[in-house]
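Complex 478.
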Amino acid sequence: MPKFFRVMSLALVEATVVMVIAGCVVLNPSTRQIQTVASPAPKYVFLFLVDGGGIPHLEITRQYNRHVHHEGLVITDKIMREGSVGLMTTHAANSLSTDSAAAATALASGCKANIGALGMCADGSVTPTVMEHAKQRGMRIGLVTNSTLYDASPAAFVCHVPNRRHYAAIIDRYLELEPDVLLGGGKDQFLPKSRPGSRRRDEADVIAAFKKKGYRNVTNKQELERSSHGKILGLFSLKEMRFEIDRDKDIEPSIYDMTRATIRHLHDDNPQGFFAFIENENVDTASHLTDIAAMIHDYREFDRAVGLAYEFYKKYPRETLILVTSDHETGGLGFTMALKDLGSVKSDNQAAGTVEDLKKIQSIAISLQKASQMLGRKPTAEAVENLMRDHFSGFTLAPEFKEAILARRPLWRTLFIDPTAHALGMMIASATQAYWQTSSHTNHPVTVAALGLGAERFSGYYDNADFGKQLIAILNGN
Ligand SMILES: [Zn+2]
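Predicted structure with zinc ion bound:
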């Protein structure tokens, strides 16, 4: 790979921006551009991204919170109600649906990108990202995710590489730009090749390199809670962090815990303000696995994290902008009316989702990923029976789903990632009427909830590249 593409410095990006502007104006003729009305730049910016979280995920979590826990959601009840709501299209330049790399590039750089590309526009041009603008303005910046730190969504906010799998180049870029806060999983790419758990191809000790630049390195919840100022690199797992439903709550921090630490670090003795990018990846991963219980648990924790930003906004309402959005919908999820079984299509054999179904979902205490791992690659009938008895006692596994698990066979063309998880997901769907259309991304538009300085500029129906352009304009006071 040419060195030019491996890591592009901010200076180089700045140099290319002029030639790019003309090529990025008309992005999506079917949706209108957001209005651009100049306003003062916010001093504090929170961008919350719920990866894979579409409108159905938000609504099902809202209904779950309301009926099961008798609680509201910050996103719907505070951010949307007191601020503004927009709808955003998410397709990639070369596909009607998107991946996280192309979508995050649009959000961060304000241009359409091809699937797999990070911080590089589909026309081959490169523009500074919104976070690079923030850094240049002297703001502190933070990247937080419960995925790997080098995953596409956080990486697209500061990196410019043609392929999202160029992990070493992404980490090199972090080291070069020095974000004040880096919290997430993915320690495997930070360890030298000879160390246990490493997936690097070289002997570079990246953690030592970060420490040399003044970073504090933390590895668990207690260390994170004790840290309050200075640059911080938190690596809490070798790969992705665990689902909220499976998390060891004494050791691994949640997205809420990481957000609280991020605000402490970014706000401490800081007259220049900050830009925090905070992502919950697990809503996407759970949806790829058709796992509604894991999805809801993670979405609820994400909403609590947004609540911390809302509390911050209440202290600094004239200087803060909170944005909550998604890169795409995953799963084509929704409560529906379905047949109780395939014996008849008559009305007395139909059922619609009810509050009781939400309570059935509440009874599930492990992720389908964990259930699948318990059964392994060659599940036995006895192991399946034990799993049902120990973890899904309120559900009945229909013969077709049991056969699919034992044969590790996809149920249909849109369910193909983990046959065990999908069969269990369909078992839960057939008992609750909450069905998945697919185990992958869809082109459903996603919501943009905005509150604070400049929030009104995110209402309407627009494209994700327009979101990026708008955010860059706001940050520059345009
Ligand atoms: Zn995904």
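The mean pLDDT is 92.
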